[in-house]
Amino acid sequence: MTAFVQEAEHDPEHGERTGPDTEAPGHASPPEGGGAAEPLRRSATVRDALLLWVGTRAGMLLVAVYGILIVSGQNHAPLLERWKFWDVDLFRKIAEFGYDGDPKLEPDPGLPAFFPGLPLALRLVHLVADDWTLAGLITSFVAGAVAVVALARLADFEGPAGAGRWAVLALLLCPPAVFLFAGYSEALFLAFALPAWLAARRRAWPLACALAAGASCVRITGLFLAVALIVEFVVSRIRRDGWAGWWRGAWLALPFAPILTYAAYQHSRTGDWLAWNNAQQTGWGRQLVWPWEAFRTTWDSTGGDGGFAPMFRLEIAAAIVGVLLLVWLLVTRRWAEFVYVGLQLGALITSTFYMSIPRSALLWWPLWVLIGRAGARHRWAIVLYATVIGPLMVPMMMSFLNSSWTG
User: How far is 260 from 262, CA to CA, in rounded Å?
Assistant: First the structure.
């Protein structure tokens, strides 16, 4: 997949390398330098991203082992068993039995909320890994490697040079990064979405839309990516490319195809075109409410005595980060990224209560690119981020390993 993005560096329409919109406010100029130095820089970016990915995965594995041997609490499950809770088991049910679930049990009404991309990947990996939980870990590991390389390439493309490694570090040190290790759908989604966005920034629209279609198979977030690609296409035509290649816009319909296909499939099963959305209400009691109602419900939950109170506080903190990110994207007139993040955050803060906002923040690559750019310009910024935010990942991971709700 990374090779495909590298091939997209040459605009097939204009026959030359394309870079960010140099006339557009909020878009960086192409990295300086060229010739023989450029492939070397890209190679170093890929190497550093993969080293960070493998190194942090090894570190998380050590923390997991330590948690089992020393501070396991009441949970004495083996290491592999600790990675199969919550959504991991739901994805496993779909992969193993389909959306009707285990025929020996009552049907799970929440299963249609999960798109089929990850279950299909699990079934494929399960051909070589007999354990479903292990298959999920392998899928996330491979997909995450693709995602961090694409993120590093994207941050370096936006500039300045060197921002890529810091963007990857920022992503991997954030507290919910445990979900990039577990068999959740975030890593697989990013493995499609980040190369898709990089291809779009390079004006390789057929490739961008094909990759975005893959992302749409994995999460409903692919819908927001598809809309953002339309905005990016229109903005690029207005700011730089002109309307000579307007016909390329036909490719923008491709990412919507998997979503419509999945809706049609669920309709054939349930008679409901919005089964994936209604499953949120049936399975988790989530429905559309006014944003102030969602905030009030979440705020009231932060003072509870149960184990969920700390997570609701983190949900509010993540929502604040999302709002600040939207303000920055708006001020810098990064319209497509504003739409992508805004649609996600809007859906999350108009739900009955805040749920999974920190985990969704993993998908906000403009945030990680912004931190990476800050780290490349001011080394103290990334040092401060790593020392303050990084340690918070450990208790969140321990919470997940002890089967507590962590988002």
Answer: 5
